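Summary for the steering committee. One of the milestones for this cycle was to obtain a three-dimensional model of the protein with fe (iii) ion bound, which we needed before selecting residues for the alanine scan. The sequence and ligand used are listed below.
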Amino acid sequence: MSEEYGVDTLWLGADLVTMREGKYQLINDGVIAVRGEQIVWVGPRAAMPAFNAARRIMFRGGIITPGLVDCHTHLVFGGDRSQEFEQRLNGVSYAEIAAQGGGILSTVRATRAASEEALVASASRRLTRLLAEGVTTVEIKSGYGLDEESELRMLRAIRQLAATVPADVRATCLAAHGFPPEFKQDPQGWVRLICEHLLPRVQQEGLADAVDAFCEHLAFSPRQVEEVFKAAQALGLPLKLHAEQLSAQGGAALAARYGALSADHLEYAQESDVQAMAAGGTVAVLLPGAFYLLRETQRPPVTLFRRYGVPMALASDANPGTSPALSLRLMLNMGCTLFGLTPEEALAGVTLWGAKALGLEKTHGSLEAGKVANFVHWSLARPAELAYWLGGELPCKVVYRGRAQWPLSAMAD
Ligand code: DI6
Ligand code: FE
């Protein structure tokens, strides 16, 4: 490195929680040097080269973490299901609600009825809440359209959001989320439509960065998932899977065999699933919001993930039915309290491993030279505070692609 090293901004005066290799890897009194949208140097101030910096921004203490990554959300949808939440708490059963046309199909109806603009507008309000907590990378799935045009509209809405918010937004096609009412008598027809028509169009229009499916006894069988995976793979699209949420189907092992980026939920994952995930490099995405809302008792096998070295990500699963969660900070706490993660594991789950679950671990998820300059300054003393407080402090500053984004008051509404 030359002595006169030109950079745009030096960020100084805080402790850096770098999350290299998924560990805190704390640097006391650290410096982040940014050129353009990239981090070019990270280290202790005492070892800083003689930078020629256009700007120096000095913090008075606090910690800086990588920008948070929410790697599993369903933020785009029409309507909401607060009415069903209320009905259930007034004693109406799930079965009765479903018989009245409620549940996921009520969201499908509302989503089909919504214009692309309406989908963008409602998702944008929800996304604002997530971003206010320091999220700079977010994945959003389709899956509430369940017909060709509505699925494409959802994906276009996600691309529109991506163009307008200060965050990296990844789109996942989850057409295999459920069976549309039109295909009630012919579920295989929907699988065929996804494989033969929808995915090729999605690929042609560049509307998705990955393909997901819901592998469950009440949704898609492992065989049907395999068909979707084969079609997606033939188009060069990376894979993800909702697996082992409510029952053991071997979906996680299947996803791992196909080299999927992640298998998500995993409450019922078996040792064989975990072994396959370790071999396939598949990230375990844990979703405590849905576990909590469904009052599940079966916990994901965290001890096995540790034993086999499977990286664990944490995400909000923000969706209108089972996880109306717009706070990744709350998920950090729930990951610790409900699933037994350490605060360090939880933070790794919303940084480096969240990035890996999206195939972005080379560019996102830690404070390292060469990575995108997405990071967050918190007025906290220790990184464990991020998981400890319920409704804790919001970020002081969020830097997205090298630029400070907002005074937080402006994000309040
Ligand atoms: N798992 C879930 O918990 C949600 N989707 C999924 O694949 C449920 C979505 C909903 O009820 O709207
Ligand atoms: Fe989900």
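Key point for the committee: Residues 408-413 have pLDDT under 50 and may be disordered.
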